[in-house]
Amino acid sequence: MINRPSKRLFCLLLLGVQVFSLSAKAGTLTGSVFSGSKPLAGAMVTVFDAAGKRRDTVYTDPNGHYSITVDFIGKLRIRARTPYFKDVTQNIDLSLDAQKSLDFVQERHSVAAELSESLSASAHLSALPWASQDSRAAFISQCNYCHQVGNALTRAPRDESSWADTVHRMEGYFAVLTDKQAKDITKTLYQGFDGKEVVAVEKYLFNADLVHAEIKEWVVGDGLTFVHDADVGFDEHLYGADEGHDVIWELDRKTGKINEWKEPDIDLPVGGVFSGMQLPIGVFTGKHGPHSIAQSADGRLWITNALSSSLASFDPATKKFKLYELGHSHLYPHTIRIDKQGIIWFTIVASNEVARFDPKTENFEIIHLPDGGFWRAVSHYLFPTVLKIASWFPQQNMPLAVTHAKWAFRGRDAFPFPYGIDVNPIDGSIWYAKLYADKIGRIDPVTREVTEFDTPLKGPRRLRFDPQGNLWIPAFDDSGLMKFDTRTHRFETFKLPLLAHNEYEVPYALNVNPKTGDVWITSNMSDRIFRFIPGTKTFVTYPLPTRVTWLRDMVFTKDNSVCSSSSNLPAYGIEGGRASFICLYPDGEPGTNIATPIQSAGAAQSVVASINASNNKH
Amino acid sequence: MDLQSLLMYAAITVLMAPLLVVYGLPFIAGARGFSYFAQLWLSERSRLLIASAIAALGIAPSYDVYKSPVPIYARLLDGAEVSGPFMLASFLVTWIVVMALARRIGHVLAKRNA
Question: How far apart are the first and last CA of chain B?
């Protein structure tokens, strides 16, 4: 037993060690970003380490000032980036405990082509000449859920037959389209991505909340790494499920050390149960396809293996995996959550099921969700057989030849796709989203009775509860956010703040900060993160420093950051060519920016920087 | 075309046979009608040959970019191009299969009626 004075002494010692450790490791940069003599508010100042594995970013305040403390030193590259302005980069040598001053002067883009190149994918997509609303909706739903379209990699001009090949290849990766939709999308991409600069009228909002924020990115894996989801462990490490390589990545945010843990082999071909499908060649080189990840009270991480129809546990203490096979008729285990009793729940998207797994008995219970019509029932009962036959012909996409999504003209409506899942903290009920059926559903944890509700916006994806039992749902297809009151069964909807009226976002996931109640949402087409404040019903927008940032599950750390994985597919399409873990500290990283001059920027006001297409000749 | 591809096309065609038959219904009806009216002036063997050919015209598949089979006539009506040698080969194979099936069905029905 430790008495009180000893405790105080111990705490003081610990604090002293931490302060010393920070000051010993850290170097600090301060300065300003200007355009001419005018300060630039909201400029992103990013420090890159010498190895290109770390990136730390802060925003300038309304006076153009910034201050950033980094825990890496040596030859560093510092970049100032502001939307609609030319990037400016400087190199410095930062030594231990050094403080340096560095100012930047950015010029507004004056060449239309250069400005166009700097715009987000969402701006480039706004130029696509859609002839049919149905095909546009299919495109948003089916062509944007693995990656951005309209970024530098995907907007390169091609001839029509090349686009047809690409669309066909994407269908092999599970874009579910009718023949007409595939043809329309091909034609539109061919006509729209013609290499000419886009004309965009965007609104970039600077919010005073940005002033305190800091973003840290840790590069992980190679150009084909696909860290689908990340979760934070009790040890505050980030764990990422690499669906391409059957690997769990572990990041120690304090040291920046990254470990790689390989799942055990299984008697299946590459691609697992889906070996008959083409799957992203070169990326999906594994058999398990670890997809979603959650930690149980005993410390084990539970991972859905989408391609091998199995559940895996990983013990961070022993680094041992254990596999639990579901059976090959249960296709694509997906999002995973754990209830207060330690029961593991996950959706099985391609089989219209939810699985319940009790770690004590190690038994699965499969709950077949309402079919929602004849054609969706056909998917449930026949798809496993078709995939089995298809596996005799590896990577030949045989299911595309026989699918009723095509010959019955159903498209994505052929599948209901139960997707996100969460546990109601009030009554323990299980709620899921049915992505292509535009429904959410409730499973009674005792009786297993299922009740479904139509959603007012389309594409309900990864939903989450707030502590009061309200269900928050991203509307992937409609650039929206939905709130569902589970007591009154009433929806409330909110449109995401778009950069321009003719752009769209594809919010894949969200999470509710248990301390603040704020809802954090991915944007994914414009390299931003949104924070929705339910009390004021307002959004705060955080521009992200790395182009082609495509985020999935969001998690909160004890040091008040919101983290995710940057998992555009393929990773080499991301600026810098690598996937990363990313954490945003809305109030700065504790212990680094406490005494920064930014804190004194109390007079911060909203500044709107807008760009007018005609004025700027682009 | 390698053996594996050939087997895959065969598997796809078998799986999609019901759809091909639905597409071919107008031709199958025509074949039945021909067989009925021609029994006065043609032998059973000749009627089988010609009726099977009529049905095969409506069923003989061509394959799209997804390897999905659709009868040649439907694809031609849709404005797509199908190569002559492929059409001939597909028709001949389908004709043989339809003939064999018609004979088999005929035998089963005759046995049941006996």
Answer: 46
Q: Which residues of A touch B5 (CB under 8 A)?
A: 396
Measured between alpha carbons, how far is residue A176 from residues A310, A390, A410, A432 in Å?
24, 17, 9, 21
Could you tell me if B71 and B59 are in contact, meaning their C-beta atoms sit under 8 angstroms apart?
yes
Query: Is the predicted pLDDT of residue A430 greater than 90, yes or no?
Result: yes
Considering the domain architecture, whether residues A63 and A186 belong to the same structural domain is answered as no
Domain end: A91, A113, A135, which one? A113
Averaged pLDDT for residues A412-438: 98
In a domain, A301, yes or no: yes
Is the pLDDT confidence value at A3 over 70?
A: no
Whether the CB-CB separation of A272 and A388 falls below 8 Å is answered with no
Which residues span the domain enclosing B22?
A: 3-113
Question: Which residue in A164, A389, A406 is closest to B68 by CB distance?
Answer: A406
Of B4, B7, B16, the CB nearest to A402: B16
Question: Which residue of B12, B65, B69 is in closest CB contact with A398?
Answer: B12
Q: What residues of chain B lie within 8 A of the CB of A398, using their CB? A: 8, 11-12, 67
- Crossing angle of helices B84-113 and B44-59, rounded to 10°: 130
On whether both A490 and A458 belong to a single domain, the answer is yes
Three-state SS for A501-535 is CCCCCCCCEEEECCCCCCEEEECCCCCEEEEEECC
Residues A156 and A179 occupy one common structural domain: yes
Structure tokens at A564: 């995710």
Residue B52 has phi, psi (to 5 degrees) of -65, -35
* DSSP classification of residue A231: E
Interface of A with B (CB under 8 A): 164, 168, 171, 179, 386, 389, 392-393, 396-398, 400-402, 406-407
According to DSSP, the β-strands at A363-368 and A353-358 are antiparallel
At A370 the three-state DSSP class reads coil
User: What does the alpha-carbon distance between residue A347 and residue A420 come to, in Å, rounded to a whole number?
Assistant: 7
| The last residue of a domain, from among A61, A84, A113 | A113
B65 vs A: CB within 8 A:
yes
- How many domains are there within chain A? 3
Residue A451 neighbours by CB under 8 Å, 6+ apart: A441, A442
Secondary structure class of A460 (helix, strand, coil): strand
Helix (H, G, I), strand (E, B) or coil at A328: coil
> Which amino acid type is present at position A408?
A
Average pLDDT over residues A149-174: 95
For A402, the closest of B5, B7, B12 (CB atoms) is B12
Q: Classify residue A265 by its DSSP letter.
A: P
pLDDT of residue A535: 97
Q: Does B8 touch chain A (CB under 8 A)?
A: yes
* Nearest in space to A301 (alpha carbons), one of A220, A230, A243, A221: A230
Name the strand (E) or helix (H) holding A93. Answer: strand A88-94
What stretch of H or E contains A142?
A: helix A133-142
CB contact under 8 A, A398 and B69: no
Residue A194 burial class via C-beta count within 10 angstroms: exposed 0-12, middle 13-18, buried 19 and up: exposed
Asked if A396 and B65 come within 8 Å (Cβ–Cβ), the reply is: no
Q: What is the pLDDT of residues A201-225, one digit of tens each?
A: 788 778 999 999 999 999 999 999 9
Locate the chain B residue with the closest alpha carbon to A408. B19
For A494, other C-beta atoms within 10 Å of its C-beta total: 20
Q: Is the peptide bond before A474 cis (omega within 30 degrees of 0)?
A: no
For A131, the domain range is 124-192
Q: Are residues A109 and A130 in the same domain?
A: no
| ipTM of the modeled complex | 0.87
Contact at CB, A407 and B66, closer than 8 angstroms? no
| Residue A558 half-sphere exposure toward CB, CA atoms < 13 A | 7
